[in-house]
Amino acid sequence: MDNGFQVRDRFADGAQFIGGRAQSGTSGRTHAVVNPATGEEIYTYELAGRADVDAAVAAARAAFPGWAGATPGERSDALHRLAAVLAEEADDFAYAESLQCGKPLKLSTEFDVPGTIDNTAFFAGAARRLEGVSAGEYSGDHTSYTRREPIGVVGSVAPWNYPLQMAAWKILPAVAAGNTIVLKPAEITPFTSLMFARAAQRAGLPDGVINIVSGAGPDAGEHLVGHPDVVMTSFTGSTAVGKRAAEIATATVKRVHLELGGKAPFLVFDDADPEAAVQGAVAASLINSGQDCTAATRAYVQRPLYDAFVSGVADLMETVRLGDPFDPDTDLGPLISHAHRDRVAGFVDRARAGARVVTGGVAPGAADGERGLRNGAYYRPTLVADAAQHSEIVQSEIFGPVLAVLPFDSDDEGIRLANDTPYGLAASAWSRDVYRAGRATREIKAGCVWVNDHIPIISEMPHGGYKASGFGKDMSAYSFEEYTQVKHVMYDNTAVARKDWHRTVFGDRP
Ligand code: NAD
Fold first, then answer.
1. For 429-449, what is each residue's pLDDT tens digit?
2. Domain-embedded: residue 459
3. Are 379 and 474 contained in the same domain?
4. Rounded CA gap, 12 and 188, in Å?
5. Same domain for 245 and 303?
6. What is the DSSP string of 167-211?
7. Are residues 329 and 446 in the same domain?
8. 507 lies in a domain?
9. Measured from the CB, is residue 430 less than 6 Å from ligand 1?
């Protein structure tokens, strides 16, 4: 499918957006963006290097006083206009997102793009609601109040799985609060971040408020995170790289926000609706080809439902249609790259020694009559049963269309197993008993616990991890607050030169 959107033309000036100008990188190294559905190179660009990061940070610094000085209402208006521009360009955004990621167009159209527009509208509203403790005479002799101020230049790093939404989650709360930002998208998926920055320019956000540097992690990424003029690092990506980013950011005493990996449990109690659990598990493990930090990855099913759940999930997985992301009949696109597909396959192959691959575990091939898919990074929906709790397939983030399923007996055991990985981003509990479900919501250590569903997100509610899944929140008023700093202002009301408390420093009497 071609909707008239030609990436080479659209990004002819390069894959950097600095100070309101599309431009080429100056690292001297190029990157070829590959369509993961076909293996074809679709766009080659010069990566951002350190000098480009410096230029972007300088542009953000220059734009900061003006943008921080705009009224909340002015910033809100600009973001409302941005939501309108995004809506006008929705088809292009959906197309570009599917092209660079390989995700089905129906997912980009129904999830990524409308979610981003809604987020933009949410932060347009949030920009006008700065909250804090009310002013008052808390000491008796002073009037105290708080100011909620923007911090300065934010440096953000985003992953490739939801490039548009991740860019929006980073950019929107930062600029709504009056900060300026330099965002580094994953170098393999630069398109929709660049389009978002251009849309913001069309909406009237001043040049320099949003800058995009498309560069490699160890080069442009580390330079951005460690940059002395960047006051906050907001990183979304793997736990391993997040730790490295945090080390660098901490060395320059930055505020750090980390949205890291996940290994979400899907806990099915024996009174759950079995059909709902099967449908939910397949949808939640395969969304975005399983390349979703909150995807269901470990299903724990209470023994009486176990066998039916395993066969129900396997049967439903086998009906999922792999195909061209632009074909409306396609349910599952490729993984992001061939290298990532091989990595996912490696996890499954190593699991075979101690577990049962019930369905999947292979890339589609000619033997399946799926020749059209052979050049893409496709992998079949995969169910792995009966692995040991401490095996790699149950403990490590795979980031592919792979669900492990294990039985449990008592409720205590199910909750213990659900908590038994280093991660804590998301989880779900399936039960028709409100007390059982309620216990799971209290005792599972994760930033989000769904009951009888798994995946939906909304702009008003926070998204973020516990444990090795990081700290800090995206979306919601909580994320908005993270991009502000709170100042206490205290006025003396007595006009007395020698104050009561001075006796603790000099003299006995007031
Ligand atoms: P990644 O950690 O490999 O890369 C993320 C970003 O960091 C990319 O832009 C990359 O270029 C950059 N990077 C790499 N090395 C760097 C370095 N040394 N310094 C600074 N930046 C560096 O992750 P990925 O493979 O792009 O994305 C998948 C991961 O993201 C998964 O672990 C997934 O769970 C996680 N994720 C988390 C959330 C969340 O909200 N918690 C959301 C989406 C994805």
1. 999 999 999 999 999 999 999
2. no
3. no
4. 17
5. no
6. HHHHHHHHHHTT-EEEEE--TT--HHHHHHHHHHHHTTPPTTSEE
7. yes
8. no
9. no
Could you confirm whether 293 is annotated as catalytic? Answer: yes
Look up the domain containing 140 and give its range.
16-260+469-488
Query: Does any ligand 1 atom lie closer than 6 A to the CB of residue 161?
Result: yes
383: phi then psi, degrees, rounded to nearest 5: -120, 125
Instruction: Report the Cα 244 to chain-centroid distance in Å.
Output: 18
Q: Tens digit of pLDDT for each residue in 26-66?
A: 999 999 999 999 999 999 999 999 999 999 999 999 999 99
Residue 45 domain-assigned (yes or no): yes
* Cut 0.90: pTM above it: yes
List the CATH number of the domain containing 274.
3.40.309.10
- Which amino acid is located at 222 in the chain? E
How many residues are given for the chain? 510
| Gap from CA of 368 to ligand 1 centroid (Å) | 34
Q: Is 261 in the pocket of ligand 1 (CB under 6 A)?
A: yes
**Residues 402 and 242: beta-carbon distance below 8 Å:** no
Written as six digits, the tokens of 149 are 């101020």
**Are 236 and 381 found together in one domain?**
no
Note the pLDDT tens digit of each residue in 292-325: 999 999 999 999 999 999 999 999 999 999 999 9
Among 53, 256, 293, the mutation site with the greatest number of ligand 1 atoms within 8 A of its Cβ is 293
Q: Is 101 a catalytic residue?
A: no
pLDDT tens sequence across 447-475: 999 999 999 999 999 999 999 999 999 99
Residues 171 and 251 in one domain: yes
Total domain count, the chain: 2
What's the CA-to-centroid distance between 230 and ligand 1, angstroms?
19
For ligand 1, the distance from its centroid to the CA atom of residue 162, given in whole angstroms, is: 11
Same structural domain, 271 and 420? yes
Helix (H, G, I), strand (E, B) or coil at 370: coil
| Residue whose CB lies within 8 A of the most ligand 1 atoms, among 157, 189, 396, for a mutation test | 157
